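User: Hey, my collaborator sent me this sequence without any context and asked if I could get a structure. I don't really work with proteins. Can you help?
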Amino acid sequence: MPGSVDAEFLAEVSDVVLPTLDLLKFARAAGTRKIIFLSSGGTVYGMPASFQIPETAPTHPISAYGTNKIAIEKYVMRESHLHRTGFHIFRAANVYGCYQRAGKRNQGLVAATIERALRGQPIEIWGTGQAVRDFVHIDDVVSALVQGIFYDGPHRIMNVGSGTGRGVNEVVADIERVLGHGTLSKSYQPDRPAGVPSNVLDIALITREMKWQPRISWTDGLADTIEWMKNAIRISD
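Assistant: No problem. I've predicted the 3D structure and written it out in structure-token form, which is a compact way to encode the shape of the chain:
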């Protein structure tokens, strides 16, 4: 319907943005001195102009999720300006690892692929599988967040990723290899409208400023995630 507001966008505002505004209000009342916000490096930049995306790149998100992440970033900055609250924004790549389940929306390529593989279901791949993404383990993301609490340098927005791009087909092949169950059945679906061909974050700033770098290797991260998912499925079933 012409002029109607996107339903997905409204859902994101209701489920994510508005509760965050309430959280900022409660944090202010509690005398919080610094806000650490985990944003999305995978969606806020939109169509990248370079292979590795720096923090200075324009933010032109094409998804409701990315648009609302940018909105929250601006509200965090506004809170800082009006109430002198410190803040640090981390724009994370595609986070994977233990405790992530695909859920009804089938989100998270690594989690969705592993869970469907363990259940003997076809792996859903959107588009040709040539899209390139940056993956970072949850333990490394948590490490960055903790360091951000104590960081007092001049930079308030930092990317958190691996700095390495992996194609979707490559990710599925790596999971096949680590899982050791042979070739997985795949189902290729039409690409999503909000998909971008490549998204790899430049992590030079956080490496220089905080001496942070990812510690969990890709293979070890996949192996740990697979073992956790096996137990999670066993318990939930």
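In plain terms: Residues 7-236 form a domain with the Rossmann fold fold (CATH 3.40.50.720). You can pass these tokens on to your collaborator as they are.
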